[in-house]
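User: Second chain of the day. Same drill as before.
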Amino acid sequence: MNLFNRNSKQSGRKDPRELLRHVETALQVVFVNTLAVREVIRRKEADILRRVPDNILPGAPMLWDAGVESAVNNAKGEMDKFTNHHNNLAESKAVLSLLEQSEVFQRAKSVITPILEAIASYDAENDSRRAHHARTKAELNLLQEKAHAKAMAAIDADPVIVQAKAELAKAEAAL
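Assistant: Same format as last time:
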């Protein structure tokens, strides 16, 4: 039983996920880990932007109550924390750049990216097919309900039913 090729009869195409089994494990690991580093950097950037201290932004109010020297030292400390996060991000970006430029990643990318694109295309095609099937089935159900209602209305007008109802009415009146 092939778990990945459930819709092969409908699509006539094999599921490209099967192709991933034939990709070297080392290439898969390098590719996935590089993408993970990209995601970590994206999150670090978002975190840094969230952490920019309000008191180092231009136009931010200074805490003059504590004195100028204290306010300057506070802003300097916040700026140091910010630059430490920024330096870690710069190091991470340098590592990512080395990973992305490596021969192994380039080879992995050239092998895996087309497979991922084929998987996305295959899934979109199957989703479209399933949506069409669901719409068609819903239309059929609606038509069946209308036909049933029409048939039930026609039954009430049938001469045999009209006669049976008249006899029932006479029987009820005699009670």
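The chain has a mean pLDDT of 81.

User: Great, on to the next one.
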